[in-house]
Structure formats: structure tokens, C-alpha cells
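Example record for the data management plan.
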Amino acid sequence: MPSPIFRFPSRFRRLDEILADLPIDDPLLLTELDGYLTAVAVCPERMVVDEWLPPIWGGAYGEGAPFEDPLDVRLFADMVQARLKEILRDLARGRHQPILDVDPRNGEPLWEEWIGGFAMAMEVRPQSWSAAQGDAAAALADLRTLIAVASDAATLTADEINAICDAAPTRIPADVLRLFARDGRDAAPAPAAPAKPGRNDPCACGSGKKFKRCCG
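Corresponding structural encoding:
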């Protein structure tokens, strides 16, 4: 049976391929990256790109992606930041659609990897999440419960866990929107503006074509 990744648009499949090509032992899955970037987008305190980008490959603050070709480094950074911009745009329009893999056996959404990526981003700036208040704090508590269930750390009954798992694909986008809409939020984390590619550089959309023959 084909991988669930083929359900996604080509730009997401290309980003998934680039993630898999990272020269590290355990690269993030596309759904994990999506959860990670969503947490960056709704973090109660603004995170700068040099802070949130390197942890994607286990790097330190300000470190570049570990590709040998500088063009691959820039392509990767551009595509990751493009997805963050897309998430922010959708949230500003009052909608959120997480990228979730699907179990090929039964068609059920696999949300656990996504919430794992969200939790990973929370660890980049852990103290900032205490700033959530009111409805945002309730949404965050809901997401923390999902994190605990996904990591087998929840002290709940089997029936409670099953109910949480069944509701998770619906709860995640609702909770994310509640976090994004919190009162007194800081300015959304603006991705660093990528340098304009040269006409013969690979297009950042991931098509594989030169910029001048694609989006240029």
C-alpha cells in the first residue's frame, strides 16, 4: 500500500524528502515538523529563527543545517519557513489543519507524532508557556494531556485514554486556535526573510526547477 505521504501536496512531499536526507540518525517526520512549527507559531513569547530552526536537526543556536551544499541549506531553511508562514496565515484566518499521517490499516489519523513535535518545540523555550492564561491555559492543559498520553506518561484509565485518542484529531486544531487567539499575545514569530534566490538557483517551492523557470 502506498505511503500516506502521497496524500499530501508535492511541496509537502518534497519537504518530507529533504527531512529524510538530513545527515542525522533520527530525522523528524513531516508530521513531527508540522507539530513543531505549530508550537513555534503559537508560543506565548516570540521565538527568533536562530533559536527555533537548529533544534530541528539537533543543532545549537544559530547553527546552519548540516548539508554539504550551501544551496541545500538555503532550500531547506526556505521550505521550513514557508510552512511556518502558511501555518501563521491559516491561524490568522481562523483555521488550522495539522499534517497528520494516516494508519494504512484503518485510515485513522496518527496524531501522536504531531504532538511529539509540538512538545519538542515547547522545550526550546519552556518557561514561556507559563504565560498562557484563561482559555489559552485551558487549551495548553489539553495539549499537555495529549503529550502525556502519546508518551505513555498519563495516569488515566484505559477508557479515558481511548476517549482522548479518539477525540485528539479534533481537539488539536481547536486547542491550537485557542492558543493563537489568546489575549495580549506577542507579535507572531516572523520567520527571517530569506534572501532572494538567484535566477539559476533551485526554486524554494521544491519543484526541482531553476528559480527563473518556476516561481521567478
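Summary line stored alongside the record: Strands lie at 101-102, 109-110.
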